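Field guide to reading this record: the first block holds the primary sequence, the second block holds the structure written as C-alpha cells, and the final block holds curator observations. Each block starts with its own label. This record concerns Chromosome segregation protein SMC, catalogued under organism Faecalibacillus faecis.

BLOCK 1 — SEQUENCE
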Amino acid sequence: MSVKINALELENVKRIKAVKIDPKQNGLTIVGGDNNQGKTSVLDSIAWALGGDKNKPSNAAREGSTIPPVLKVTLSNGIIVERKGKNSSLKVTDPSGKKAGQNLLNSFIEQLALDLPKFMNKTNKEKAEVLLNIIGVGEQLAVYQKQENELYQERLTVGRIADQKAKFAKEQPFFEDAPKDLVSPQDLINQQQAILAQNGENQRKREKVTQYEYQVKTLTDEVARYEQMLNQKKEELNKATYDLSVAKTDALDLLDQSTDELEKNLAEIEETNRKVRANLDKEKAEEEAKGYKSQYDNLTNQIEDVRKQKYDLLNNADLPLPELSIEDNELTYKGKKWDSMSGSDQLRVSTAIVRKLNPDCGFVLLDKLEQMDLRTLTEFNTWLEQEGLQAIATRVSTGDECSVIIEDGYVKENVSSQSAQPVNTQPTWKAGEF
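BLOCK 2 — STRUCTURE
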C-alpha cells in the first residue's frame, strides 16, 4: 500500500502562521488563496518535513515571529514526522518500531514527488531516460535506436547516390541507330584491303585479255606477211586463240565490288563509336541506379524491422500511462512531444512517471495549477482517484474548487468544495503548540 499524507499541521513556516489540513486520500486537495498568502509555503513545508534539510527553505521561520517553525506530518502508514525547536530537529515516530530518521523516510518518499517542477524542467531527453530506467528497457532501446540511426544514415547515403545515378542515366543520350558493340577500324580496313586485292586480281585478268588480243593481232599480221611461215604460225595462232577463249571465259562473269560503304563507315566510325559508348554508359548508369535503389529498399525494410522491435519493446513494457512512449529519444504522450502537450497532460505525465519511480510514495505536490480550467481540474482529479493517487496542489483562486483557502497565513473559515472533505479551518491551538 502506497504511503499518503493523513494530516498536516504547520506553524510559523515562511508565510504560514498556523494551518491544519487533512488532505483527501485520493484525488486533488487544492490549497487556494490570493498571492502572498502562504499557499506555496504549505508545499515547501511538506517537502522540508519529509525530504530532509536539503529542501529546507532559505528563510524557513515566519518573518516577525519569535517562535521557531513547527511542522507535523501524519502519514497513512502510521509514521509521524515532526520538526520543531530552535534547530528544527527531525523526529520520526514509527509505531512498528523500525529504525527512525531520514533514512526511513527516504525508503518510501520519492524526492521528485516533493519537487515535481524538477522533473518537468528536465530536458526532453532526460525525461525519456527517467522513463526508460523505470520500465527497464533503456539499454535495449538504445541498441535499437543506434541500429536505426546507423541504418538511416546508410540509407540516406545510398538514396542520394541512387538519385544521382538515376539522374545521370536519364541525362545520357541514346542512339537507336547505333550498333550494340563498338566498331573496329581494323576490321573495316581489312575488309577494304581484301576487296582491293580482289579488284587487283580482276585487273590482272583484264590485262591478260588485252595482252592476248594484241598477240593475236600481231600473229595475224605475221601470217599475212609471212605466208611461208603459215603452218608454224597457224599452230601458234590456234594456241593463242584457245588462250584467248579461256581468258575471255574467265573474265566474262567478273564483278568488281564497291568500297564506297566501307569508306563511308571508316569516315563515320568515330561518330558511331561515340554513340555506342554513350549507349553503354547509359546502360551502366541505369544498372547502377537499380542496384542502389535495391540497397535503399533493403535498408528501408531493415529500418522498419528495427522500428517494429522498438515499438514491440515499448508496447510490452509496463508504462505508467497508456499512450505514453519514447520516440527519437524523447518522451511522447498521445503522439505529442513534451513541448506540444497541454499543461494538464504535462502534469499528468509527470505525476504518473514520478509515481512509477517509487510506487511506495502515494502522493505528489503540485504548485500553481492556474493553468488548468475547472473542467480540466475535474478530469485530472478523476484520473488521480482512479489511480489511487493523492495530490496536494496550490492555485491562485478562492473559488469552490479549492479544498482550503489560505488567507494571511491561516486557513480561511467556511470553505466548502465539491472535491474537499471537511477540514479544521481555524486553528484552535495556542501558538507553538499542536
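BLOCK 3 — OBSERVATIONS
Residues 133 and 139 are 9 Å apart (CA to CA).
The chain is about 50% helix and 15% strand.
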